[in-house]
Amino acid sequence: MNIDKLASASFTEEAIQLGKQAKAAARRLAVLSSEDKNQALQLMADRLEAQSAFLIDENQNDLNAAKKAGITGAVLDRIALTSSRVQSMAKGLREIAALPDPVREIVKMWRRPNGLQVGKMRIPLGVIGIIYEARPNVTADAAALCLKSGNAVILRGGSEAHHSNQAIGKVLQAACGETAVPQHAIQVVQSTDRALVHEMLQLESYIDLIIPRGGEELIRAVVANSKVPVIKHYKGVCHVYVDIDAELDMAERICLNAKIQRPSVCNAMETLLVHEAIASEFLPPLIAKYRDAGVEIRGCDKTCALVPGIKKANEEDWTTEYLDLILAVRVVKDMDQAIAHIEQYGSEHTESIITTDYRRSKQFIERVNSSAVMVNASTRFNDGGELGLGAEIGISTSKIHAFGPMGLEELTTTKFIVFGDGQIRE
Amino acid sequence: MNIDKLASASFTEEAIQLGKQAKAAARRLAVLSSEDKNQALQLMADRLEAQSAFLIDENQNDLNAAKKAGITGAVLDRIALTSSRVQSMAKGLREIAALPDPVREIVKMWRRPNGLQVGKMRIPLGVIGIIYEARPNVTADAAALCLKSGNAVILRGGSEAHHSNQAIGKVLQAACGETAVPQHAIQVVQSTDRALVHEMLQLESYIDLIIPRGGEELIRAVVANSKVPVIKHYKGVCHVYVDIDAELDMAERICLNAKIQRPSVCNAMETLLVHEAIASEFLPPLIAKYRDAGVEIRGCDKTCALVPGIKKANEEDWTTEYLDLILAVRVVKDMDQAIAHIEQYGSEHTESIITTDYRRSKQFIERVNSSAVMVNASTRFNDGGELGLGAEIGISTSKIHAFGPMGLEELTTTKFIVFGDGQIRE
Known about the structure:
The structure is a homodimer.
Chain A: H1 3-30, H2 34-50, H3 52-68, H4 73-79, H5 83-98, E1 106-111, E2 117-124, E3 127-132, H6 136-148, E4 152-156, H7 162-177, E5 186-188, H8 194-200, E6 209-213, H9 216-225, E7 238-242, H10 248-260, E8 269-275, H11 276-292, E9 296-299, H12 301-306, E10 311-312, E11 326-332, H13 335-345, E12 350-354, H14 358-367, E13 372-377, H15 384-387, E14 394-396, E15 404-406, E16 412-423
Parallel strand pairs in A: 3-4, 3-6, 4-5, 7-8, 7-12, 8-11, 9-10, 9-11, 12-13
Antiparallel strand pairs in A: 1-2, 2-16, 14-15
Helix pairs in contact in A: 1-8, 2-5, 2-7, 3-7, 5-6, 10-11
């Protein structure tokens, strides 16, 4: 008897069970009032705080296991729950409750010559599967964003946070149970076996969207195996281009902020492009400040000629997402060359031009097709909260369905609504 | 030596070549003016007409091969090009030229408390792959819709129309060559081997979206094998629900139209639901008219009791897309039961309520989440042209990116645009 096959069949069943329950819950969620959903979110927040000790206890099991497995540093820290982190999860839930409900919004409406009134109305996607790394806070955030947008969610977090995720899930579900929200609106996968993830990815009849959050390897594996649509977020190789007409003080302020304020995130600048006419004035003092802040510079030939002791950038540097205090710098002939560089090496994530020239600001905005294109602002603003979406479930770098930060609206779709007086087709 | 492997490697190369060329063309297309694109579309239309004899000659090769292969009837007719069909392709292209250009439309714009002006601007998706059956007119239509929306397209039509598609592609490309549109904006795949299709589906670095048009089997195979996002169109099991308060004349007119006007298409009604209180008045005369029109009725027990000689519907009938002069009829207790039926058996395509009751019209619109939900109108209106989108490249039944008819707007995405005055993140 083939154990593999047996095991796989049982995972298929388990996944289908999750999917069926989620789909049934999604039908009921789709027609709930905003008040009902907000009441559940508020109660979820209250209960997370009230059960803080339980959550921290359960988290201790994960931390102990992680330490035994030799996990340390930033990764261990990401898994850890403290009372202030639980409070901040609860705060996040209350913020989501306060956001406008996108469901049943009528996006537009028009009239046809035959008198039909036609419109588009927002509706939930249905069932969303989230596959993520060992970050317990994602369990609460993602559940809340999906609930507010009327979607049922199946959460599958990293196994290193298994006990924490189960505990958070239990608290959230119990809170929902006291409200109008259906029991299976939020489901946290119990199995830690990857076979179950594989089975989830086959459920195109039950799951409408998969959002993987984590490293590129995880995301590529999900894309390669999924029959369910996937919204993916690959890397961010973000550029700032400092134009000949830039105000240099502003340019310096933005360049320092875009690299240093939080280098480990996808919207941090990785490559700086500088117009050749201002490079000798602009770069040396900026690079001195970068060095004071511990930033390693990798420069093109011209950059290296301007400032002594700079490591020469190689071809790979232009495509690397360092996520660290390292910056590639290139001197370019003009905006055309900057845009050509961005098209050749960039990742269509975030690019900013620093300029005082009206025409070039407009051209840069129109010609660069990244998920966020900016004038005189730090790339660090490409974030759902900063752009005004309220909260985000991720940043999409694929152009299908959503491009850039995904907020509540991006967790919905639209249906056509048609009001007639007996019209038929001739 | 393994011939299979050799062959596959050469297809990989061919597909990558197509992808690279398309991606380069897409970059140039994205920044073309509407005038440049419209000029190309007009010229494409002129040249199709001027080369009508050449197209019909080439089509003859396909027709001869098809006849040899025993293809007859409707399938053979679909492949055939006549001078009036070429004219109608040209007319389609001119209509697309006359539609508004969605590219660079600023969809909305808002201001953040820190003074950042943030907006969303429409941009093309990039490269679109269309995989379709043997319908030569799709080659021209799809190419025109993609071009107008600023996308490069790779067209892979059914091999039974191979010569026709190659000829149409040649004419369209030659016309583009005389305009600002880049050479590889429109590419028609030359190989008829399915291995090339498989390779296309792996090109997530070059192709942004795959749209399969054809039977369910083709679409499922594409979904199962594609790393590129797919927008799919499965079946349409469309319902009309005739409410207790329906105006019966109007209801009859709509029911006849929804079933009979063109039974072979996805937005034709497949199941009729009738409120029990009006069934005995409404159904017998309607069913008599259906029978006069050659429609076979498959009814629930109550329907069979009302009209003699009706075949009893089985469970399978409720989920079947007949695409033919067959109609399933069920008498229901009320709107709740009608909606429950639609949720259990429907395909989320198109549903219409016939009623004079204000409250139920509003509830039906809000509670039924199909791609088009209608009041007092024929399901046959769920069509891009009829709803006012101008033209359509297909009807999506998945909720990601687009739900329902896809026009030019649905072939675009939006990027965030951000205008600052030196803002940085604190």
